[in-house]
Amino acid sequence: MVSLRTVNVVEKDLVDGEWMIWLDDELYKCNAAAQYLASISDEELGKKMQDVTALKSYCEDCSRVWGNVKEKFTTLT
Question: What is the tally of structural domains in the chain?
Answer without folding.
Answer: 1
